[in-house]
Amino acid sequence: MSSTKEKFPPLLLKAMLSFTVLMAAVFWLMPWLYTRPENKISDFTVDFFSAREGDQRISIIAVTDEAMEKYSYPLPRGYYARAIDRLKKLGVKTVVFDILFLEKRDPAQDRELIRATREAGNVVQALAIQPAFVEGAVLSEKKMPIDGLAEASYLTASVSVDSTLDQDGYIRRVMLFSDADGGVYDSPLGSGCGDCVNLPIPSLSAAAYAHFTGTPLRRLYERENGNFQRWLNFTAERVAEASPGRKDKPRKEFYQSLYPQISIVDLLENTLSDEEKERLSGGVAFIASTALGAAYDQYPSPFQAQTPGVMFHANSLDNLLNGNFLRLADSRWMFAGMLLFIWLPVLWFRSAGWVLASVTVGLLALWSLTYAFLYAGGVKAMYVMPAAGLLGSFVMLTVLRVAIEGREKKWIKDTFSQYLSPKVVDVLVRDPERLKLGGDKRDMTVLFLDIAHFTTISEKLDPEDLTNFLNRYFSALTNVILKNDGVVDKYIGDCIMAFWNAPLDVPGHRKLGCLSAIECQEAIRRLNGDIKGAGLPEIGIRIGVNSGPMVVGNMGSDTRFSYTVIGDAVNLASRLEGANKYFGSSIMVTEPVYEDSKEAAEFRPLGRVRVVGKTVPISVYEPLALKDGLDAARRAMLDSYLKGYDLFYKRDFAGAAGAFAAALEAVPDDGPSKYYLANSRACAQTPPGQDWNGVCSLDSK
Q1: What is the 3-state secondary structure (H, E, C) of 484-503?
Q2: Which domain holds residue 698?
Q3: For residue 659, is it within any domain?
Q4: Each residue's pLDDT tens digit, 84-117
């Protein structure tokens, strides 16, 4: 099993691909699913992060409740004429009416309004574009101001915002020019409309911009190049004092607004403050109703449940003057961001649950800050779909973790319970990450154990008895290995292969391997005692133990594999098991195993050997028993053996022969003593040359 498959299981990849396809379909084909929450996020961002002040050149001449009480409702049009005259004297550059004068009323006052509009030469009057039902079809119908008023104005523009209303009733966008169904100028409507015939009708903000900047309307239309629908970049609400120029106010009153609201009463009664006069001079004044008791247009905004419609026109003009409408982020980049957020958490699929949750929260926080900074920079990104991709990915990964980890834990228990100790299996089930599938190079200890003369034994038993014999033998020795935190790698005929320090770290693994070898010999002695009289042969075992760097992991094909170890250190352990035949020993270990185990067991050196395929000889040892575990006879044998071994390698072969003979008197069947006694006598008769180093070359595997 490859490491990629371990980290990204096929079920994970299939599920995430399916989720990606679903999110892509929603992104491109079902925007209505996320438009409303997207708008709410945008509103929150505006309300929370907006800090830009409105353009100081824009003011609102507000027809307030006070004005309606003072002058009656609706205001006689003569007051609007006086307002135009007053604004002209104050040096206002552009006057924009967000009030419709559609029906004729008092002829004298209508004429007065037309006169003031014509003489000022800077007034934008309003028309309405409303839906009309004609023979079952919905058409747009222009509602024109009273006769003569449009011609007297600089431009006549649309106050309608219905085409940009969102489903929740909010205004977040404006149309600078009417769309194809919104109507066109079929005749010049104002002194600034010399080249307007067949031009789409502009919004109040576009008309105000054209007059204020001296830009011909057609040039503005061509400059926008069809990009007429714009997202408002809202200014921040400010708290201001109402009617600051009045001296007789019983108390100060304040209001919140995107742009300063100057009461039409203060304008007409000449009670403006110096600051208000200064603001009006050279600026743009929108005249509109803000009275709460009047039937004026008001819409929800990110700031208030009801906002006078004139504020949206004023904000649109602000964005036009400063070139800071919100720019929509490229949907292709937003789609790429969504894909990134779907797949990025997959990299932490194998991490702890809290890590995946922390990554998700961190990415969501990063995206939220990025979204806010983009908005502050005038870019309207899509928040919902990338965030939904991220959160959906987290939910998917969490569910898949539970499903896949449950399946993996079952696989671990089913697979490893046969050759790992129960406590090791429990650790792996709780923490599967500690089992790294595939190749992993580690410092390990490996043990090979084989039954001596098994061929002869097998020939004496029928198949059923042989099977029972092997099962009993394997069970006893396997229990020893598992007790010492070893892993039974495999059973090869009459051979057992085991290793330590994988898949979990096992402190003191060399010592545990060595002690397991000693305990296996003791288990065999007990087993031989138990089967006496049962018709089964007594057996002996040979064991080789080595440690060093090995590669451990699941080896094999994608469909059939086993958890095993490979490497030169493994091969050497196997050859040491066979080398016991040369020395007549029961256990053979290498020097690293001896060094880590000498405080826990009784050892004797066996000599230096050179195995097949290697040129450098190694020192090997035989552990005889646990520390202080030798009886008197074996202790006497060991003392004589060590004396003879020392004399042998000092070339005192006669003295060595005497010592080894004494060892055999204590333990007559001791194999290594027999080996060295024979070699001592041979060397005493025919001494080796001066280049003799005592190395035993093993000429077979």
Answers
A1: CCCEEEEEECCEEEEEECCC
A2: 630-701
A3: yes
A4: 999 999 999 999 999 999 999 999 999 999 999 9
